[in-house]
Design brief:
This protein has 408 residues and is of the alpha/beta class. It has one domain: Rossmann fold (3-Layer(aba) Sandwich). 31% of the residues lie in helices and 22% in strands. It has 13 helices and 18 strands. The strands form six sheets. An eight-stranded mixed sheet has the order 6-3-2-9-12-15-1-16, with helices on both faces. A two-stranded antiparallel sheet has the order 4-5. Strands 7-8 form a two-stranded antiparallel ribbon. A hairpin with a 4-residue loop joins strand 4 and strand 5. The longest helix has 16 residues. It is globular and about 55 Å long.
């Protein structure tokens, strides 16, 4: 892996001034379990259990509590385009064993498949969950399923992100989150045609009502920053306990629904109590697996994120689907964010600011199937100075440009 420098990020905005590097936050553990290629369902469940039970002691869970599991159900396509059903089933079983009353698994799929408005609904997240194989797995394990659009436009409440964000108002979150005690986030690890990657922080979009998603895509000059800021709403800050990804299969190109699926000889299950630390390691894993993808699968429109024009057109199409033609003509340009190392990622750099600092990631093995060299490589990629330097990218609101700042 070549060290990442500012020169690698050819589509970043020019540096304008130096400011202080991101604050180094507290040591934060991320646990990894190795899973062999072609692992059995029971083997995967064992790995999920090992990671979950080493990441948290579940002392936050009281008998009878309601727990909401938030997967990535952006389409009806199977894992890794959506969250691994076996991993979710394993988590449901663990929660039930530890005394949870209700366990609910739910989401609202992307605008390509589902659209909720004040007057009508098209598409169905329920059908997509069934198609992906997720519904059968979670219901067999004893969980309920829930789909935000089925409750209607008024079944959302306004939640506030932390002060100083790029959001113009509150974020519309589903009412069901008021009725549950805890949230477990179970994203996947993959490429994304608009965002570059889709990990834990990006998965928050599934909560949002259509008008919130419209602002997110229409005001696209701060798309990456709003991704992080959307995770700071009070509900998530107070109730989210664990972030866990099955990543033995990785969608390494295109995304979020289709692309080149790479299955390494040893895959991972990744977990942390911190969504930021989780995403640092998950992004490092995505970059690691992309090294093994044939160049023919990463070139041209097999991976359209490589082209700024493709990203701009795709985002304007999403704006049109969300809000009609009017907002398309006033939509800001979405600037693609080249990500050659984790320090390039604008989503993470903003997360370091709004979550109180850059976690000092401590990697620990949760089972004996994790190769030592893999742990070292990921450790190097998530340690500042070994694989590039953290950056801060600040939006100048009076000019539609960015200042990129390297840490020295």
């Amino acid at each position: 892996m070549i060290a990442c420098s500012r020169e690698d990020n050819v589509n970043a905005a020019p540096a304008a001034q130096r400011v202080r590097p991101p604050v180094i936050g507290q040591q934060t553990k991320v646990f990894l379990a190795g899973v062999g290629r072609g692992i059995s369902e029971e083997g995967m469940k064992s790995a999920v259990r090992a990671v979950a039970e080493t990441t948290t002691d579940f002392s936050w869970l009281s008998k009878g509590d309601a727990v909401f599991i938030k997967p990535a159900l952006n389409s009806g396509n199977p894992y890794p385009a959506t969250t691994n059903p076996t991993a979710i089933a394993a988590m449901v079983e663990i929660l039930k064993e530890k005394g949870a009353g209700r366990v609910i698994v739910g989401d609202m799929s992307g605008i390509e498949h589902v659209k909720l408005s004040e007057t009508r609904l098209s598409g169905s997240s329920r059908r997509l969950m069934e198609s992906s194989g997720m519904a059968r797995a979670v219901q067999t394990a004893g969980a309920e399923v829930h789909f935000f659009e089925e409750a209607g436009w008024k079944a959302f409440f306004e939640d506030a992100p932390v002060a100083g964000t790029h959001w113009k108002g509150g974020i519309m979150m589903p009412n069901i989150l008021k009725d549950i005690d805890h949230i477990i986030l179970m994203p996947r690890c993959g490429r994304h045609v608009l965002a570059g990657s889709t990990l834990g922080l990006k998965a928050a979009v599934g909560y949002w009502r259509t008008d919130t998603r419209l602002e997110y895509h229409r005001d696209a000059s701060t798309f990456q920053e709003k991704t992080s800021e959307g995770n700071t709403v009070e509900t998530l800050r107070k109730k989210q306990r664990l972030v866990l990804s099955s990543a033995d299969k990785v969608l390494t190109t295109f995304g979020p629904d289709n692309g080149h699926v790479f299955q390494p000889e040893t895959g991972l299950v990744i977990a942390s109590e911190s969504v930021v630390a989780h995403d640092m390691v998950s992004l490092a894993w995505l970059l690691e697996t992309r090294r093994s993808v044939p160049s023919s699968a990463k070139e041209g429109f097999k991976d359209p994120y490589n082209y700024q024009l493709a990203v701009s057109i795709a985002n304007h199409w999403v704006v049109g689907k969300l809000g009609g033609w009017g907002p398309v003509f006033t939509a800001a340009k979405l600037i693609r964010n080249d990500i050659n190392c984790i320090w390039d990622d604008r989503v993470l750099n903003r997360a370091f600011q709004v979550f109180g600092g850059m976690p000092k990631v401590i990697l620990e093995a949760a089972n004996d199937a994790l190769p030592a060299d893999l742990k070292k490589r990921l450790g190097d990629m998530t340690t500042p100075g070994k694989r590039g330097r953290p950056k801060i990218i600040q939006l100048l609101t009076d000019q539609d440009v960015y200042r990129e700042v390297g840490a020295k």
